[in-house]
Amino acid sequence: MIACPKCSEVGSIMKAGYVRNKQRYVCKNCNYFFTLSAPEQLSSTKKSRRHQTTIIDIARSIGVSNSTVSRALHGHVDINPETRQAVLDMAAKLDYQPNQLAYNLVKSKTNTIGMIVPEFHNPFFPNVIIGAHDVLTAEGYNLTIMQSNESYAVEVSNTKAMLANRIDGLLISLTQETNSFEHLQVFEKRGIPLILFNRVCDDVAAPKVVVNDFEASFMAVEHLILNGYERIAHLGGPLNLLVSRERLRGYRAALEKHGKSIEEDLIIQGMLSQQKARIYGKYLLELENRPDAVFAVNDSAAIEIMLMAAEKGIRVPEELGVVGFSDNPESAYIGPGLTTIRQPTLEMGKTTAKWILQMLDAEEEMNFPQERILKTELVIRGSSLRKA
Amino acid sequence: MIACPKCSEVGSIMKAGYVRNKQRYVCKNCNYFFTLSAPEQLSSTKKSRRHQTTIIDIARSIGVSNSTVSRALHGHVDINPETRQAVLDMAAKLDYQPNQLAYNLVKSKTNTIGMIVPEFHNPFFPNVIIGAHDVLTAEGYNLTIMQSNESYAVEVSNTKAMLANRIDGLLISLTQETNSFEHLQVFEKRGIPLILFNRVCDDVAAPKVVVNDFEASFMAVEHLILNGYERIAHLGGPLNLLVSRERLRGYRAALEKHGKSIEEDLIIQGMLSQQKARIYGKYLLELENRPDAVFAVNDSAAIEIMLMAAEKGIRVPEELGVVGFSDNPESAYIGPGLTTIRQPTLEMGKTTAKWILQMLDAEEEMNFPQERILKTELVIRGSSLRKA
DNA sequence: AACGTATCCGCAAACGTTACCGATACTTTT
DNA sequence: AAAAGTATCGGTAACGTTTGCGGATACGTT
């Protein structure tokens, strides 16, 4: 028979249902409900969680209160130097590691900046990350990176995860697919600093860091024109990206300035995977009246064009001028060298990070300058030098 | 006169020192100590912290308890479907975002894996990151990345930060400088899963993921030998890195197998910045009896050699064979193409990540296989094809 | 003595969740 | 109808910090 844990009666116990698969009892005598704890089922599985020494441990071992320890560890004023030293010694002795999680919870901040990038394969974003990482860690912040993989759905889920993890601020570069922005407006609503970089949009009231795509594109195309190229094709990015539109605008503007007619069938926009680049390149180079130059929106597409030209026996730069965008490492080494536009990637990371730190410092919502435009540089190599 | 906030006596108040610059009083009647709160100093500065809706808010608005809400949100069994729906609706209505911080604290885990890499400039580590990131996010884990910048001190501080942030596991690739390992043994002591990859050492009892550096190096050098090169120099990495030693070992073994003598002054070890590569390359190419091939420990050094050879009018591959290591993107495009060893970077990231997830699943400290060796691939391009 | 001052320390309430242990009302079985 | 079982829900103690404010003590000053 079972005895009541409370009144120790033995005859008065009866069953009272199940609680989570455990038989439940009630004592008719003292009306006490209880379950029998599982017969100590030898659960060596349960691996008693290794105890991390906490502030409380320190407090107990030297006979002061938690608050004293906390204050001592943070160099607070209201503390006796001797006490402080004792705390510090004991902390060292017990190998105390502060629990950032508890700190985060009580302070409701994480000292972490989030960053979402669409992809990782070009050296562009890794470089931006380096830049941001450098200035953030120098200021004691962490950086957690997520990759949206050019998918809007993933981007949304990433932002949600960032919110749940209570990052202090977010740096984001949008997906090719991103056309709606509620997931970003949340940050504004919550008062969490947000900065868009590189792949930006106009629908979010947040600071933006970009490069001078229009000017860069203009420079590139003008450079081709000045080198005697007449019919310049444009292999552009998807038009829902602002950068693509800006670069297209620059292309058109340069042609117009120099009185060239714009041939719409020499303009192709779309997301430029390597495969697509091959398809579009084939189309362009097999046109019966083929262009004598191509301005591509990124270096890999430009390189694809150069390789294809080589296959077809079209000489670069004599019969075909090529200019890319980004200055990937391989662009310096290919064929005659690819003329391209170098982007200040590291600087972009650094300025973005510095900016968000400023926003964090300023408790008040200041009127920040809304956009920062970084300068690119035209790197002239062999692929565009017909005149010389 | 001042009235006692407790007993409302008026005449019995007298000063009792200062506390944090505020006048303090004591009531002689009820012996109550108090300070007068500052006269409500209109602090609109204080920007009332925007309230995040919590579980408690939901609970209150539909008149249930916190536990019920928590259970409802997690699809627990013990819950009435109607209640669950009500909770879910209210959560949506109030735009509830779970506070991961609180969750982390109570569960003492963060669903986050840390990763420390020495640098970011080669495409190698970014690619590893992509691989790891993919499998981790697929399993609902986050990845926070830190960069030790090839500095031991930074590496140590990184690991400390990781510990403080209570990551669930750590993936690390060591610094060139790292020769002591207490900062890693801590993880073992704490029972936090740890995996070394690429830059590993033997002094830490943790799983390791590496490539077959020895074999790869052997293959590369043998390939040079089979192509008729006689005196093969080796531009190696710093010898405290295991990879460097393995590659050196492979180099020696290949020479020995084919009965070549090993000329020690054709072997240079050291950290291969671009500048150093130039210096060493100059030394090698200006040797009065210069080598007819170079096996470099990374592609950038190999490319530096090729460029320098071009400057000096030394023809590659006719007069100088070159083989690199890593297959950087530029290696496919330079000069005659750089023969090099392709490393399975993505796979390295993936296997490392999968492995640590296994370790997390297995509560017990299982006997994991201690090392996993991934296969590399010799990519043969023009820079080493003299025979053909 | 009686009062004023400065210094140091402790109490306890947050922070938002989770999960254990019960409790209640209702349904089914004996 | 009593006993047993089921389905839901609530109370509350953790988790480890930080911090506002009250309390105690020792010392200085009338």
From TrEMBL, chains A, B:
Domain of life, source organism: Bacteria
Pfam families to which the protein is assigned, alphabetical: LacI, Peripla_BP_1
SMART domains cross-referenced by the UniProt entry: HTH_LACI (SM00354)
GO MF entries: DNA-binding transcription factor activity; transcription cis-regulatory region binding
Record keywords: DNA-binding, Transcription, Transcription regulation
PROSITE patterns attached to this UniProt entry: HTH_LACI_2
Record keyword Nucleus present: no
Domain (HTH lacI-type): residue spans on this chain: 53-107
Protein's UniProt name: LacI family DNA-binding transcriptional regulator
